Sequence to fold (637 residues):
Amino acid sequence: MIKKISSMAEYHQQYQESVQDPEGFWAKQAETFMWQKKWDKVLDWNFKEPNVKWFVNGKLNITENIFERNLPTRRDQVALIWEPNDPKEKEIKLTYGQLFEKVCVVANALKKQGVGKGDRVAIYLPMVPELPIAMLACARIGAVHSIVFAGFSATSLMDRINDSQCKIILTANGLFRGNKNVALKSIVDEALVNCPSIEHAIVLRRTGDPINMVEGRDIWWEDFLKGVSNENTAEVMDSEDTLFILYTSGSTGKPKGVLHTIGGFMVYAEYSFMNVFQYNEGDVYFCTADIGWITGHSYLAYGPLLAGATSIMFEGVPSYPDAGRFWDIVDKYKVTHFYTAPTAIRALIAMGDDWVTSKDLSSLKVLGSVGEPINEEAWKWYNDLVGKGRCPIVDTWWQTETGGILISPLAGITPLKPSYATLPLPGVQPVLVDPEGNVIEGNNVQGNLCMKFPWPGIIRSTYGDHDRCRVNYFATYENLYFTGDGAKRDEDGFYRILGRVDDVINVSGHRIGTAEVEDAINQHPKVVESAVVGYPHPIKGAGIYAYVTTEHLTDDQLATIEKEIVDLVSKLIGPIAKPDKIQLTPGLPKTRSGKIMRRILRKIGEGDASSLGDTSTLLDPSVVEDIIKGAKVDVKR
Ligand code: WT7
Fold:
């Protein structure tokens, strides 16, 4: 097991060591894991291609590190607690021993269906125990999981399956989310019409809904498991074999499949989990993220389970059956560590304080925040009402591409500053650069946030298109990994994340690419063009504002087009990408070379037309006036 940092002095000492001797430092961490064969070399890297390899030629299986390594001391300890959507339904608790058995059964069942090392498996499941079980079963046999959040549309699912040529999909007939009941299988059916690589769909029965099973293709979960043994020997994997692909949006094109490999991801997941959260024996850890996002991968499933923790997964939403649900769960399981997103906190603030002040939250020790900058008001509420002023808040900054937390306080160790992610973890070497890529030295400065040295959890590639990985993250600034975020470093060297500096909108902690939303809107037959920007939203952090030009519309068409656009985006991407505001406008502000000036649209969306800057270079400056007049917000001039 990784030994936790226990003081600020020790943090500084580990940090120094990790910079002066990264290979020695990470070898020491990696030695606490179970390897079938040790690595020949700790690190091989360049950010040019990029080509990063950790624990070169090491052989292992990540699930042996979750199970075989933990079982001698934890067979009967609860690994996973499942809290259902409906509080009246019974929870499920699985010990390490029980979870292991279930993982082995699914691993063997996958093998029986012909799934083997390197094959891609799509997982499109609700937040039920079968989701992490399926995930770990893939890892057990060396298959690559590609988990698709079960809120994505048929088209999004189809794109992801096809991009990585998944052989099999694990799904459910339906799902419960709050008072909603989603017919998941019909979404899958729609997607699979255009997914020739899929041989079988394995279907879990979660809701009572009848569904259509396609003969020869679809298999019920219970039939899939029939006659399968519960003993399985882990596949021996290379440290740099792929563990999973997770799709995420960028500033251009379709979502890309961020690829993580086994050895580095494993070491970094446990190391960062233990140190940031300061998990102790007997603690109960509750991460509210869906496993369909990276937070769920690293800090609901892999990190805590590697560390031998007890991890809660919650099927539902914070507002069902009422706004006290999170706190009921905290009380029910005596949660010690609670990790959520600022958007959830803001939504709960809006519901009133009684929902939280009336609950017993005395078990809590550590609070976490992730996904977007936490504003001071939300920080204060979280600190005062939830943590009663006695629980450190770890504001954890990281990304799908980083595999794990890079900048964050260590709970109870690092001094806190509201809205600051504070200091880099050992092994993490942030730099701030100006737009030309010059490194900005010293403190009290701000710039674009980059990393100058690899950490074990860093992205290895984008599936099927390595050059896209290079162009996206390693080509903006030479020899640096560029995060896409701006940041400030204060007088103490503490980092405050300022948000995206690219065309990515952070909606409720989820990344939405503006290009992707525009592509969806443009598919409406009456739409000529569109431009999408983010604007400040009280709950979501950022809302989606779409400026749209259309062909001539009749009054009837005018009456329905906004709803049609919203439905279209929902159908093509998923409900999370729905525009909050749609403004029909006669034109968009463009330069003479035809480039849309988003800066102007962003300003107007923020309600501030006082500093639009020079609009004289526009092809037609009068469109700006039209847009301000028709804006869906109050615009100050
Ligand atoms: C982007 C990554 C990594 C988990 C969830 C999101 C923003 C993330 C913070 C934070 C300020 C944050 C950044 C980043 N972000 N955490 N603590 N403070 N901003 O993962 O979808 O890959 O998005 O989320 O802008 O680049 P993701």
In short: The chain has three domains: 8-61+240-496, 65-235, 506-629.
